[in-house]
Design goal:
The chain has 171 residues and is an alpha/beta fold. It is built from seven helices and five strands; from the N terminus they run ααβαβαβαβαβα. About 19% of the residues have low confidence. Keywords: Phosphoprotein.
Length: 171
Amino acid sequence: AAAAAAAAASQAPTRPKSTAASGASQAKKAGAAGAVDAKGKPVQRKMRILVVEDHWANRKMLQSMLSQQGHEIDCVENGLEAVNITAHKFFDLVLMDCDMPVMDGWQSTATIRERKALNENTPIIAVTANAMKGDRDKCIAAGMSDYISKPVERKRLFEIIAKWTANSTRA
């Protein structure tokens, strides 16, 4: 009788999960570039992001926005620390302030690019208060991939991240 009850229970119809919830969780699990949730919004995979920022409030703000999206964040306070950490740890993306003590973001980026090592092709996004016409060109000339001005707007930050990581192949 117990075996018959177990067999009947295994054949009993199960209540399906909500389509929206299961679709969103499947898309999140997929984590692939181009994945979308049940509402059609892009789902971004968890990434390793380096935040290079000397001002603690800006560093904490970026760290908070990124970690709320599930990203793994490392923070350093100057360009020399960025050069050192990128020598031995891979990042999917680097957010680099430009004006910092010890080593500025332009020199740090140039050094990372010249090294021909672990993070030489990692997108490096300038995050700077310098918003004049020539500032973007200076960042690109230093080897930075793109530019976002301060104060950083959440929507713009995630648009830039999606732009530069959409074709990333790291799982």
